[in-house]
Predict the structure of UvrD-like helicase ATP-binding domain-containing protein.
Amino acid sequence: MNSPIERRVWGPPGTGKTTSLVDAATKAAERFGDDQISICSLTNAAIREATSRSIPIDPENLTTLHARCKRSLDAPAPAESSMAEFLMDYKKYDNDFSIPPTLREHTKDDKNERAMMGGMTYFDQAQIFRQQLIPESEWKDNKVIELNKDWLYWCRGKGIMDFTGWLEAAMEIRSLPRQHIVYVDEAQDHTPLQLAVLRTWNTKHLVLIGDDDQNLYEWSGAIPDRFYTPELPPDRERVLGQSYRVPRAAHSLASNIVSRLIKRRTKEYTPRDFDGSVVKSSYRLKDARDGEPMTELGYNYPDKTQMILTSCSYMLEDIISFLRSVGAPFHNPYRKSNHKWNPIGSKAANNAKGYLL
């Protein structure tokens, strides 16, 4: 079975990466059939972005890589969903050092997010080593090795696999269905194991679409330069070099920062025709906790909207409390089910902001 012909598309911020993917996939589906084209990504969010466009592709071919592997193996629910049962059999691992709180307590609240900031568990380390294709003989921590052996032994006894196991099995037996072209969105976020699964897929063409400068998943085992390794002939690589979103000021600052990375692929990338501005604010999370006005953040402009970004959701707690205290409407259109972030709903927030600010 031959390896697929690999191609790469580099898409820096705002260059129309998703639009380019959808256009290419649509043309390919019309030519080769909607069942011969697949679009995969690492996250459901990226898949939702692709499926929000009109693509004439079999819906079952628009999935995350994990979901596609699970289906090809006809596998039951992941072993992680049975963690409570595992901990009943192996009580010595029922602690914050061994298993992540999110798996032990089956919740995704801010308490667990805070706990996860405290360090990586033995389970996390084992998963990363497997995702990075590091042989167990090279693992240094005996506690990580012991937990991994017990976990995999328990999984085999139950006849189930964990998320990483789906990938390992799909690669070993090459269970993914034959395709003509497989497109991979946000390819830079995939781990060495995930990329290996993709590169052993029985497809004629494999198109990796991404940008190593935008890697967000090193914490889960991704290694940015694996996306563009090995080297490809120039005619099999394409750079989307014109941003339609990023203005000159933001582009200049971001380019200066990212150029400091030691290992990266240099790309021609130009901003849109608009100056824009970058304003550095001294406003801190502590200021929100103390009830300081958010004037520096543009809070006093009723005709504009602002986005507030933090690394973790718990960092927004004081800002949310402040916004509530002054009656300012806010919402998170990306987490609509979280009522704490959407107290009055997105539509109502947009309608009300002109009156309350």
Notes: The chain has three domains: 5-74+166-239, 79-160, 285-356. The longest strand covers residues 203-210.
